[in-house]
Amino acid sequence: MTSHRRAWITGSAAAALGVAIAPGIRLIEVAQARTSGEAASAKVRWGLLIDTSKCDSGCDACVKACSDENGLQSAIEDRQRPQWIRKVMLTEVKTGRQASAPMMCQHCAEPPCVDVCPTGASFKRADGIVLVDRHACIGCRYCMMACPYKARSFVHEPLANQRAQVPRGQGCVESCTLCVHRVDRGEQPACVEACAAAGRGAILFGDLNDANSEIARRVRALATQPLRADLGLDPGVRYQGL
Amino acid sequence: MSASFTAAAPSEVGAAPPAAPPTLPSPADEVRRFWAVAAFGALLVAIGLGAAHFMETHGHAVTGMSNQIVWGLPHVFAIFMIVAASGVLNVASVGSVFGQTVYKARAPLSGLLSLALLGGGLFVLMLDLGRPDRIVVAATHYNFKSVFAWNVFLYSGLFAIVAVYLWTLMERRMNRYAPAAGLAAFIWRFVLTTGTGSIFAFLVARQAYASALLAPMFIVLSFAWGLAVFLIVQSAMYAWNGLALPVAIQRRMTRLLGIFVAAAAYMVLVYHGTQLYATKLHGFERFLLLDGGVYPLLFWVGYVGLGTLWPLTLLLAPSPLGVRGTVLAAALVVLGGFAFLYAFIVGGQAWPLDIFSGYTASSTFMDGQVDAYTPRLPEWLLGLGGLGLAFLVTAVGVRVLRFMPQDDFARFDLAAGQPVATTGTTAARKG
């Protein structure tokens, strides 16, 4: 092989490689064009307070509202179906007392899912909302292994009829976004609205950092608790009556 | 797979009577056999790729995995191969770092197997991702707090270090750097398996995994699994060439495997001992070791019985089976390794998380329930594809370069009064 021909082959191979990976690199640039915390303020810490005494075990208005809002309808079996929010039926072991409560991403201040994510797809906004960047998630599911609340779902099936404001992706991990698209518009998460509309008012949404907010006053006045407090993750969701 | 050796030679050390020389295939037959072997490996790889394509097209809904058991059979295959890839390098380390001549001659094959197993493991791991097409994202975006991100560097680093190590072993001018490269590989593989164990050890929320013992436990398991794979491949290669492994070497490696298997069992015992010490983990341990159905069965019958006790009797007690006993024991250790990992990885996720302390829980999301997982065909085929890739790389590598231990051949040929023309010239003996 002449040196001229060798140089030509090397050049062609380099050009082919460049063409192959350039679109991917371009996509990464696009995905990074707006940093995750840019629009959110660290002065705010969005959170939920769930009053289990008001939660009706026969009511699933919050689950339905979440499904409608985020386009989560699916026909596959429960164990594979994405569930951003679920109703958990609870029985106290010692007393037999029964309760129910909605369970969703707890939007931890120290989220283990963010710690373990290899690509940084799992991230926390400045206002405490924990999200998944759908462009950077490779579907490794390590965040699902790490989440102590089993709050994340993997999209096991091809998707259709997605909501424009809630992009999802097959093969990616997802979870409750605290209806970030609504919150950024100054509205409440869909589950909170639905719970109030159903006459329960078991879920209270607000800014935990604002001392005058209803949620901050209630958290200050009542005995509430985070789940798995032993892990010290400082969740943004607190429970009352457990 | 050179066919230049003409007869099985008895060991100069062993007392066994000389076996009748097997009939070796002609060079043309040998070439045909190589292509058949390579085609078989390529077919397995193609089947694995097909399974991955099917999973990507239809989603992981076609697997048995769920939102509770998020890592299934593919991870059992992948982690076995990645752990064994580290362990198989031990053979080279015993030679290069600890100066044992018998093992030095085996360093090239050890390095090749390490690359092959790591490639096979990563093949499965990557193709089981929800978005395998985004490998470029994984390679360009790092969250350095993530153990997975560390592992990306550890895997690519092992490829590079072992490749350089093999170069120093096989290129005469580079031989003087072999001890340094061997030491680097030795250290790197320790770090790599620490990383593999830490993938689980850092999962503080899960009853099965949050233990600092997992990193050293995986290192010791890697010794046993890696040497077992090495012994199986070495025996297959010798048989291919119509050669018999010298009895003294076989005995040494057999004893070493016995020690590794016993040490691994000790680490597993200590791990479960520490788990059982914590009252809050009693429910999980009872599930995994006693009443969890398939998981206790795999642990006790698969790992403890078939994968530990039976091989130990074959390896440490005098066996009438000779080399066949060693190979049988090694195969059992590999099977036991798969059984152990299945119980550890899948069983550890099947058990529900304890989210609401003091309450029993139930929901449509399997809260409070043991998730029933049955691996489906695409998962098996993807795993077999990974094994196929490791097999193919090994077969082709041995064919095109001199990875087989050469010193023994030379000695046999001299003992048998035959010329040594094609043997003993490799740099492998200098590793």
TrEMBL record, chain A:
Keyword set, alphabetical order: 4Fe-4S, Iron, Iron-sulfur, Metal-binding
Domain 4Fe-4S ferredoxin-type: 46-77, 128-157
Gene3D superfamilies xrefs: 3.30.70.20
Matching CDD domains: PsrB (cd10551)
InterPro entries: 4Fe4S_Fe-S-bd (IPR017896), 4Fe4S_Fe_S_CS (IPR017900), DsrO-like (IPR054822), ET_IronSulfur_Cluster-Binding (IPR050954), TAT_signal (IPR006311)
PANTHER family reported in the protein's UniProt record: PROTEIN NRFC, PROTEIN NRFC HOMOLOG
NCBIfam families cross-referenced by the UniProt entry: DsrO (NF045797)
The protein, known as: Hdr menaquinol oxidoreductase iron-sulfur subunit 1
Taxonomic source organism: Sphaerotilus microaerophilus
Lineage of source species: Bacteria, Pseudomonadati, Pseudomonadota, Betaproteobacteria, Burkholderiales
UniProtKB/TrEMBL annotation, chain B:
Coiled coil: none
Membrane topology of the entry: Multi-pass membrane protein
Protein name, UniProt field: Molybdopterin oxidoreductase
Cellular location(s): Cell membrane
Lineage: superkingdom: Bacteria
Family as reported in the entry's similarity comment: Belongs to the NrfD family.
Keyword field: Cell membrane, Membrane, Transmembrane, Transmembrane helix
UniProt feature, compositional bias: Low complexity: 7-17
Region annotation Disordered: where it falls in the sequence: 1-24
Chain ranges passing through the membrane: 34-55, 75-97, 109-127, 147-168, 180-203, 209-233, 254-274, 294-315, 327-345, 380-401
